[in-house]
């Protein structure tokens, strides 16, 4: 009698350096925010993640949307995150599992940060000036702005509050 064994290939997706930065960052911060009793229960992890996602913006909010952490999410693969976290799996491994389910999760990349000390505001686009204000949570600070000079003025005024070290360094130049 001949026994034929079939070998099942397990596809594991490795994350390369610089890939999945948004996923790894969000998952690591989320894991760090959990108490030990919550880490033991996948359903509690899912509920906590939904609450955690309410505070996120930009690419991080998009990550939550991809895996089902928002009410408006089209898909729901949150259990793929919750179970590994309950097993004390590191963030990078959790992201590898998420990437197996949905590869676009690792396509999310953080926008390049603008160096406020060296940036020539006159050369920046209005879109970049708006992003600076948005990152500071001051989306409404420039409601009546009609020209680029208005945005530059508001960014410089608010820089003292949100980036004091950059404001001080700019004064010294």
Unreliable runs, pLDDT <50, ≥5 residues? 1-10
Sheet with the most strands, sense and barrel status: none
Count of distinct structural domains: 2
CATH architecture of the largest domain: Orthogonal Bundle
Q: Please give the share of residues in helix.
A: 40-55%
Shape: elongated
Q: Average the pLDDT over all residues and give the rounded result.
A: 88
CATH topology of the largest domain: NK-Lysin
What would you give as the CATH superfamily of the largest domain? Saposin-like
Number of strands: 0
Structural class: mainly alpha
Distance between the terminal alpha carbons, to the nearest Å? 85 Å
CATH class of the largest domain: Mainly Alpha
Oligomer: single chain
What topology emerges from the helices and strands here?
Elements: H1 21-33, H2 36-39, H3 42-53, H4 58-67, H5 79-86, H6 91-101, H7 126-135, H8 148-162, H9 164-172
Helix pairs in contact: 1-6, 3-5, 5-6, 7-8, 8-9
Overall description:
- 53% of the residues lie in helices and 0% in strands.
- The protein is an all-alpha fold.
- It has helices at residues 21-33, 36-39, 42-53, 58-67, 79-86, 91-101, 126-135, 148-162, 164-172.
- Helix 1 crosses helix 6 (91-101), helix 3 crosses helix 5 (79-86) and helix 8 (148-162) crosses helix 9 (164-172).
- The chain has two domains: 21-107, Saposin-like (NK-Lysin, Orthogonal Bundle), CATH 1.10.225; 126-172, no CATH class.
């Amino acid at each position: 009698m001949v026994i034929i064994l079939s070998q099942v290939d397990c596809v594991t997706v490795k994350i390369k350096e610089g890939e999945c930065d948004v996923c790894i960052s969000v998952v690591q911060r989320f894991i760090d925010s959990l108490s030990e009793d919550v880490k033991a229960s996948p359903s509690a992890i899912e509920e906590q993640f939904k609450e955690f996602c309410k505070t996120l913006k930009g690419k991080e909010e998009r990550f939550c949307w991809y895996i089902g952490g928002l009410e408006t999410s089209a898909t729901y693969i949150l259990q793929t995150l919750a179970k590994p976290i309950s097993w004390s799996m590191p963030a990078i491994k959790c992201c590898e599992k998420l990437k197996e389910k949905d590869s676009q999760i690792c396509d999310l990349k953080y926008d390049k940060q603008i160096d406020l000390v060296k940036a020539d505001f006159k050369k920046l686009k209005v879109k970049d000036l708006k992003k600076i204000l948005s990152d500071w949570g001051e989306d409404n600070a420039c409601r009546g702005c009609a020209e680029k000079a208005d945005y530059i003025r508001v960014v410089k005024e608010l820089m003292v509050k949100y980036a004091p070290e950059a404001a001080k360094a700019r004064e010294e130049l």
